[in-house]
Amino acid sequence: MSTSREHLIDVPEAELEDLRARLRATRWAKPWLPAAEPGATGVDGDELRRLAGYWADGYDWRKHESTINALPSHFAEIDGTTVHYLRYDAERPGRLPLLLANGWPSSFLELTGLAERLSAPSEWGGDPDDAFTVIVPALPGYGVAPQRPASGPHTHELWHRLMTGELGFARYGAHGSDIGAGDVSRLGEAYPPVVAGLHLLDTAAPEAYDQESLTPEERAYLAAEEAWAVDERGYSHEQQTRPLTLAQGLSDSPSGLLAWILEKYRVWSATRFTDDFVLTQASLYWFTNSISTSFRPYYERHHNLVPAVTRVDVPTAVALFPSDLGARKPRSWIERNYRVARYTLMPRGGHFAAYEEPDLLAADLRAFFRTLA
User: In terms of CB atoms within 10 Å, which of 90, 134, 308, 344 comes out highest?
Assistant: First the structure.
């Protein structure tokens, strides 16, 4: 697989044939639960077999490769790291720039529809005065984005230098989900004079709190979160403690990689994603061999190798989608370390909200940042 300024991704035919051969030669795990309980111990085996078969004999990677290469991609060299980003200029000049950041197991592809709605609202029935210039930086080590050096700047620092030094914005807003929400939170904490506000789908927990100060709603939330962690957080524990052991299997087996990703697209959302969308995300991880490097933020957070989010004092909007992972956080819990200016409980949507519910999310972003422009 190669990249260039002309073609973001260019997969040699030999690599495409290797993927198909591996999928056709998959040795399937033996199921041992009754057929009445599909998915009770992980990914639905029947769906995985069907999707792997389509990936090998039916899915048109070249069509999606062309779509990816047609995106408004740019590169910047910042302190020894090559940063890949998409840029969508506002349909009316002079509008607030807005950075969008995705999470795991996703990519910048999740955000393209949202970026289009935010940069050109009139094309979606909106007001041109609500337009943003939208920047979508790829997380380092995700997809075609190179990993940052071990001694280089943290992701949020790279993004701040991208927005201010490379792109010349004096002031900007930022939105993030999951891992991207953590990096965006660090942006707001580190650069409050420049960051106008944050819009988040997830927030960092307070570093410390007095048990006696917990409200009944907060106690219920923490109990639900603990129960969820027992049942569902095994993936995270492995990715943050022994990531390279897991990564070896997923980097060698496309069916294993697909199983690891597919489970999350099914469990963390009520949306039925199209086969092509899931397989394009999986293909991007596969052809760039980036599932291993996508685990790095988990390891670094667990081992305190990135700054903790302690207190974010820029205005912050939080939008919580009901099918996202974990329990919904009460506003009072978030206010322990964020200056919450807007708190929205969304009627539907999950972990991949920018793709699942782009209109809902775009409307909430506009409503919030309209007050900060």
Answer: 134
